[in-house]
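Retro notes (design track)

What went well: tokenization of the new backbones is finally stable.
What didn't: we kept losing track of which sequence belonged to which structure.
Fix going forward: every design gets posted as structure first, then sequence, in one message. First example under the new rule, 153 residues:
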């Protein structure tokens, strides 16, 4: 004779395999007496329905691309592979290890093994221009100085 029947299904809790009547057997239910909760991914004592960070990675579920995977939270290119495992985070076809802008698909630059930019999609190579301007300015300054040195009064 049982006196407790949590889900009021006329089967006492001792004989009932699903005490709260949520459809999850008590043996697999993290909260066997709570019909609103059955899973606690991060084992923090707060069921996933009430928990704002199910995987306890420090990123709120609402901001987490992988709310049940504590090793991932971001998927820049929305390809279903988190940035930690993705070799091309922005999906621009250039692997992150060779991409000067691994999180920006509108800008990428293939890097050589020395780390210098060898090709560029949208970034200018202004370094050569500055060197050229410096050399022209230096030549003009030297010419001006030598002209003033030999000037006869």
């Amino acid at each position: 004779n049982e006196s407790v029947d949590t889900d009021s299904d006329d089967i006492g809790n001792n004989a009932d395999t699903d005490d709260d009547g949520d459809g999850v057997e008590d043996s697999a239910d993290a909260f066997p007496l709570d019909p609103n909760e059955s899973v606690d991914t991060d084992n923090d004592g707060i069921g996933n329905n009430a928990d704002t960070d199910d995987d306890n990675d420090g990123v709120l579920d609402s901001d987490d691309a992988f709310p049940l995977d504590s090793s991932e939270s971001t998927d820049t290119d929305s390809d279903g592979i988190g940035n930690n495992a993705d070799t091309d985070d922005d999906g621009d076809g250039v692997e992150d290890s060779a991409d000067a802008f691994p999180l920006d698909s509108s800008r990428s630059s293939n890097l050589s093994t020395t780390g210098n930019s060898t090709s560029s999609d949208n970034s200018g190579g202004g370094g050569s221009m500055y060197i050229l301007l410096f050399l022209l300015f230096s030549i003009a300054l030297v010419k001006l100085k030598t002209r003033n040195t030999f000037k006869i009064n």
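Added context from the reviewer: Strands lie at 109-111, 117-120.
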